[in-house]
Fold each of these.
Amino acid sequence: MYFKRLRDLREDSDLKQADIAEYLGIAQTVYSRYERGFQTIPLEHLIRLADYYNVTTDYMLGRTDRRSFE
């Protein structure tokens, strides 16, 4: 599954893939595969990124357009 919002959130924060990969403790190439949908993102990484960007996991997954629970 391709997660366009992963890339959008990263770019909106002026971050590089390498920055997020370092935060997650993975290689940049692995993170790139997450963004392009070539590799499934583990739940623990999805949750960490949602917390980092202060959005819900449903928003990141494209299930809603509401960024937060409020």
Note: Residues 16 and 39 are 18 Å apart (CA to CA).
Amino acid sequence: MASVTMVMPAMGESVMEATVLQWLKQEGDLVAEEESVLEIATDKVDSEVPAPYAGRLQKILVQKGEIVKIGAPLALILTEGETLEATSVLPIPTASSSQPTSARPLQPPLATQASVHKPSDGRFYSPLVRHIAQQEQIAPQVLSQIPGTGKNNRVTKHDLLAYLQPRLPVGQPPEPDVSFVSIAPEDEVIQLDRVRLMISERMVASRQTVPHVTSFVEADVTDLVRWRTKNKEHFEQRTGTSLTYTVLLLQAIIKAIKDFPMMNAWVTKDRIIKKKDIHVGLAVALSNNNLIVPVIKYADQLTLVELAHNVQTLVHKARHQQLVPDELAGATYTVSNLGSFRNLMGTPIIVQPQVAIMALGAITKKPAVLENAQGEDTIAIRHRMYLSHSYDHRVIDGALGGGFAKRVADYLQSFVDWVYW
């Protein structure tokens, strides 16, 4: 028999770590190749990790609740060959090493890379608290001395952040003190779930890092509404896909992104990365009041029919928890359709490292002033909507950000002149 190391696979371009939710197999169990062995959770989606080889699960290296980096060892699988020995474990290959694989030492699991991941004081620490402690390099003996306000004196995230407060960089705002909040017996207390906590942390980080500017443009979409009303039934019969307003609006946005390539970019501390391919993230509201953003890959290369099919498929998978990590990674621009909730406009928060996001307001009928060929003004009922475009003022100024929003509106108002199936 021979043992091989099962490692944490890549989970998408922007996913660097995951939390082990549970092991589906126990030590000693037989596993088939590609059979699911454990469940993990990233900041984007929950998924199962399959076994890369058939054999027997010899040893589990990472326990439930621990955070694992991409590429870190998860378990040892005993396959046909020779008897298991500690020195026979295949190490994790690294691009920077020129040594043969068999000569490199086995990379230890994340839990043993930093002893703070599993303090020996017998006290319980949540994965989030252990992760923050590791990031801030808090020694186990120091962590054990921090007073806890949680159940059974457990150290909470807020306890740890309060301890770290003197160490925060100058200018970083402290978290508000909510210890004075009183809870009446008739109040309902709802604990934020993991997804909601991740959304909260990412949105707060974006607002603290990025100077947001939002431009608003009103578009007359009367011709678009009429075109959809005329063609939606034939479109669905021909393609088997619904012709939604979201699809039509997306096509105009994608067309404008091609005109304004700076909108299709990522930003780091001192670099702007202009992305060649256009991958559009589409915010989808879920029935549990959470939010997920699947990504339409290579959106600029899709026809209207292909775009409609992609949107329908991704929305269905999002609402039935069927998305895989790759379908949530790599977005270069994001769109949020507030109009589906009858909202007129909003101020969306940028999804880092992207530089912009657009919110689509509801399409409503309004009286509008129109000028005829003779220059005379008349009043008519028109279909109109607001576009809200938030952009990163570190790299995009008002002329560029506002000009992009205006270009989207122009395309919507001349919709029948350029739409293609």
Note: The longest strand covers residues 377-392.
Amino acid sequence: MEFALPPEIVEIQARARALVDEHLIPHELALSRSHKLPAKTRARLEKLAAAAGLSLLNVPREYGGQERGLLARIAVAAEFGRTTALPTRGPTILGPEVSPILYHLTGELREQVLLPVIRGEKRTAFAQTEPGAGSDPARMTTTAVRGVDHYVVNGGKIFIGFADESDFIQLLAVTDPVKGARGGISAFIVPIDTPGVRIVRQIETMMRDRPFEIAFEDVHVPLANRIGTEGQGFGFGQAWLTEGRLKHAARGIGVIERCLELAATRAAGRSTFGAPLAERQSIQWMLVDMYLHLNQLKLMTYTTAAAHDRGEDVRYDSYMCKYFGDESSFAAADACMQIFGGLGLTTDTPIETFWRDQRSMIITEGATEVLKLTLARDILKRYARES
């Protein structure tokens, strides 16, 4: 079977590549020094993205967006993965990032949260990870105990991006410890200025991320601020993370392609011991591996995103895409660094940023080992036959 992107997606992908090549890559070394874009730079890039027809890709038409499927968004994300100009995580330049969870809001919350977020007037942070429940979110201990007209939340979350700039927190908390992940975790909207919500610290990392730790101490959350019915929260979070894992894979596509461009150019132009690096078999094999992984990753990622758009359950396929995408893109950055030698260790190229960022991707939103464990269970269930 031959898989080809639909013409309309090829066209939007081409616009994304042009934006990256003309306005991001030429400035990436300066922009990648910080985990946040300067305000003026962000505003300028957002205008360019809007002019290129790349804004609000995931927002439904009824709210003024393009209502593009995941395949289109993944194709665009792959192009942005080719540059280190933008922060690795956090807001893009493609308009407000609207979590799918927010579309479950109704009534006053829809007016107070969803619509202002779409308009870019408000921002939200997603709080699921805890110090003792990272790759295993079902073990979270933050609780929301129901009262007459409110819940009382106690606990803590960690690695919460851009909490300092957010107006609301999308919080997952345990409402039924017995049920746990099977109907015992609920989702809430919590204004950041609610009494008892406290930003504990900002965390320094080896990447360009500066996430936060947040404490919740006897936080009163109105019943009306629950998203959906009680117990739906874990499902909401996992559905969003499925898309997030495919975005990991899309970023991997961009990283591998850029590293292939950099490494091939370096190999062709750099001579040692009287011959170009490109004539060394060891270098050729590195380039071949990058190219092989690039094509494998494209096929599995695009076919999975297309299946998602058809309404199919792609949870396990998303595990595969993230696992392979993160590991192979880090390997590509590592090989690119090796081909560049000492220059690859400097900040004169984007390679060291790719290397650090992709190493972090192997851990976040599902560590490789956890994804492989879950995939193994599914494989055994589907393929093992009684002897």
Note: The chain has three domains: 7-98, 103-110+123-231, 238-383.
Amino acid sequence: MFEHLTALPPDPILRLLAEQRQDNNPQKIDLGVGVYKDAQGATPIMQAVDRAERILLETENTKTYVAPAGNAGFNSSMAKLLMGSDNPVLESGRLTVAQTPGGCGALRMAAEFLNLCKPGNKVWLSDPSWANHHPLLNSAGLETVEYPYYDYENCGIRFDAMMDKLESEAKAGDIVLLHGCCHNPSGADLNQEQWQQVTELCLRKGLLPFIDIAYQGLGDGLDEDAYGVRLMAEKMPELVITASCSKNFGLYRERTGAVMLLSANADQAAVAASRLFSIIRGCYSMPPSHGASVVDLILASDELTTVWQDELAAMRQRIHFLRGAVVDKFVASGIDRDFGFIQQQSGMFSFLGINPAQVHQLKKDFSIYMVDSSRINIAGLSENNIDYFVNSVTQVLKA
């Protein structure tokens, strides 16, 4: 039976990772893979995570199964982190939370749930969106279509075009996927006024917002980055949220995430929960325990929460510093091109704004790796390589 299969091309980011690992150039720079890196180019274990893991090692007394919903303490803490600890939604009975295997698991379980509600339903994605959004949603049976989002020429949001598209073509019951903060891949985020306008549009047209938030705390702050989530939780009768702990807790390989469903009332929430947990049971039965237990320990401890928030603030400040530094370096290079947009954007990613041929030249001549779209991971830069990066880009642009 297997002989009838044909091979698929490798994932471009994973292929890029393999290529740079084989590159022996000591000055090589990996700006493709979306992981946070420190000044030494490492993705370290956060101190709060390390301390929580040591506590867990000493105190964990069983390896028995968890429930399909996962770690109850983790679910409660994640809801408070996203919604705010005093949000009345938390006590309303309307919110269903399930721990998932990473943000991808959350997205897929949300997609399976939404396809159960309305098979083949339409999901509006930003153009561009995170590349894995399409396969995660399509493979559950949902249809993905796009609304305008990023303006490649002016390096901002095509907000009027976005609103016009959703106003004219989105139908009641359609789903609109929004990035909670630190838009991947563009780094261009909705501001508070724009979140308010999108919320009003969704309410008026009967659209279901679906917020994917994978970088809370890496943009402007934990509370600031959750503005859109909290606004929509306050205003919308129904809301879907998926969250990841990979970036802000550094738990990439532990695959720790959460899916949240906000229903119109407690009775509907009970039905939604039964359906969601049944879907989980049929897909992977129950989530892994370790990463969620670590997050639960951190957020249940005032001391560890403070350590974690301080570390997260340092990561956020470093990204802000790098954005400003790379812009200053380009200005100092004398190149006739404005990269100021990089400093105005948020989170780990931005489009450099060069063409695929120039991307390939940077890889070939300078061992600088990024995907063809020119999306770069700002955290892949450091004080040690930023001059080399700017000089290399400048040479390619002047060629």
Note: The chain has 15 helices and 13 strands.
